[in-house]
Design brief:
Elements: E1 5-13, E2 24-29, E3 37-40, H1 41-44, E4 73-74, E5 78-82, E6 85-88, E7 92-94, E8 98-103, E9 112-119, E10 124-125, E11 128-129, E12 135-146, E13 150-157, E14 160-172, E15 182-186, E16 190-193, H2 198-201, E17 213-214, E18 218-223, E19 236-243, E20 249-251, E21 254-260, E22 296-308
Antiparallel strand pairs: 1-6, 1-7, 1-9, 2-3, 2-8, 4-5, 5-6, 10-11, 12-22, 13-21, 14-19, 14-20, 14-22, 15-16, 15-21, 17-18, 18-19
C-alpha cells in the first residue's frame, strides 16, 4: 500500500512553447488551491530571456553556440537538451495526489510533456532522509529595486526545513549590485553568511571576468560583462544557479534568506555584508537608501525550500 509518492522527473519540448520564457508549470499537491511548486520555464531552469542568443531557431547560427544558454548542457538536477527541450529532476513529495498544469501565454503552442514519479520512494534531499510530511515550496521573488536595497528571498516560519537550490536572473542598468552579499537568519537568532559577494554564492570569483559556467552545483552566465570593477553604469543580464546538495542550509523553526543589491562590500552596507572578522552580526532592520549608488536592478529568483513538521 502506498503511503506517499514523489515526482522524480519532468521533461518538456516544443518548438514554440519551449522557447517562451513565461511558459508556466505548476504542481498542485494534495488538492491545494494554490500551487506550491510554480515556475516559469526559463527561471525554473536558471535561464534568463537575455541568455537565449545563439538558439538554433535563428537562421545561420549553429546549434549550441558557445557561451549561450542553448543546449545541450545539464547537471544531475536540471538541464537544457535543445533550444526548446528541457528536463528537471526536482523531487516533489505528495501524500495522496498531484496535479501538474502547463499554461501557455500564447494559448496556441504545441508541446510534449512527460513526468515520472515513484510510490513510497524515500525522500532523500542532499543526502538527508526526510520525514513523510516533507513538502517542496518554491518561493519566487520578482522585484525591481534601487542599488543598495535589501531583498528578502524567502521568509519561512513555523516549520523545519532546508534550502536546496536558488535560481536567479537579473537585468540591470548598472553593476551596482555585484558585491551584494547573501545571508540567512536561522531560527531567529543564528546568523549565517552565505557569500562575501554575489558571484561567491554561485561559487564564482571576480564577477567582471567570470566565464560562463554550468557545473554540477553552480552556474553563472553574465551577458555584457564589465571590463573592470570601475564600470558601474553598464547594462547587463545575469543568470545563475546554486544547488546546495553538498551543503544544505538547515533550519529548525524559521528561515530568513536575503540579499543586498549593492556593489559595496564594506561598512557602507551597514552590516549587510561580512566586512568584519570574526563575522559581524546581520542587522535586523533595513538599511537606508544609498544615494551614491546608481542604477535599477530587476531580479527574479526562485528559492527551492523543503519543509516538514517537527
Amino acid at each position: 500500500t502506498a503511503t506517499h509518492g514523489v515526482m522524480t522527473q519532468a521533461w518538456h519540448a516544443g518548438k514554440s512553447s519551449g522557447i517562451n520564457p513565461e511558459l508556466r508549470i505548476r504542481y498542485y499537491v494534495d488538492g491545494e488551491a494554490t500551487a506550491s511548486v510554480d515556475y516559469p520555464l526559463f527561471l525554473g531552469h536558471a535561464v534568463g530571456p537575455a541568455q537565449t542568443k545563439g538558439t538554433n531557431i535563428i537562421p545561420g547560427e549553429p546549434f549550441g553556440l558557445p557561451n549561450s544558454s542553448t543546449g545541450p548542457w545539464g547537471n544531475q538536477v536540471f538541464g537544457r537538451t535543445h533550444d526548446s527541450g528541457w528536463y528537471n529532476n526536482y523531487l516533489v513529495p505528495f501524500e495522496k495526489s498531484i496535479k501538474i498544469t502547463l499554461t501557455d501565454p500564447d494559448a496556441k503552442s504545441s508541446f510534449w510533456y512527460m513526468c515520472r514519479g515513484v510510490e513510497n520512494l524515500p525522500i532523500v534531499i542532499a543526502g538527508l532522509p526526510l520525514p513523510p510530511s516533507t513538502r517542496l515550496n518554491l518561493v519566487r521573488t520578482s522585484t525591481t529595486v534601487r542599488a543598495g536595497e535589501l531583498v528578502m528571498l524567502a521568509n519561512v516560519s513555523g516549520k523545519a526545513g532546508l534550502l536546496r537550490q536558488t535560481n536567479m536572473v537579473i537585468n540591470s542598468s548598472s553593476y551596482s549590485y555585484q558585491e551584494g552579499c547573501i545571508s540567512a537568519i536561522i531560527d531567529g537568532t543564528n546568523d549565517l553568511w552565505l557569500s562575501s559577494g554575489l558571484e561567491d554564492y554561485f561559487l564564482g570569483a571576480y564577477f567582471h571576468t567570470m566565464p560562463t559556467e554550468r557545473l554540477p552545483f553552480s552556474g553563472f552566465q553574465n551577458i555584457q560583462p564589465a571590463t573592470s570593477d570601475y564600470e558601474p553604469e553598464r547594462g547587463n543580464s545575469l543568470s545563475a544557479y546554486r544547488i546546495h546538495d553538498p551543503d544544505p542550509v538547515l533550519f529548525a523553526s524559521s528561515f530568513q534568506f536575503q540579499w543586498i543589491a549593492s556593489s559595496q562590500n564594506n561598512e557602507h552596507n551597514l552590516g549587510f555584508c561580512n566586512y568584519d572578522w570574526p563575522a559581524a552580526p546581520i542587522p535586523r532592520t533595513l538599511p537606508p537608501p544609498q544615494p551614491s549608488l546608481n542604477g535599477s536592478i530587476t531580479m527574479n529568483a526562485l528559492a527551492f525550500i523543503y519543509t516538514w513538521d517537527e
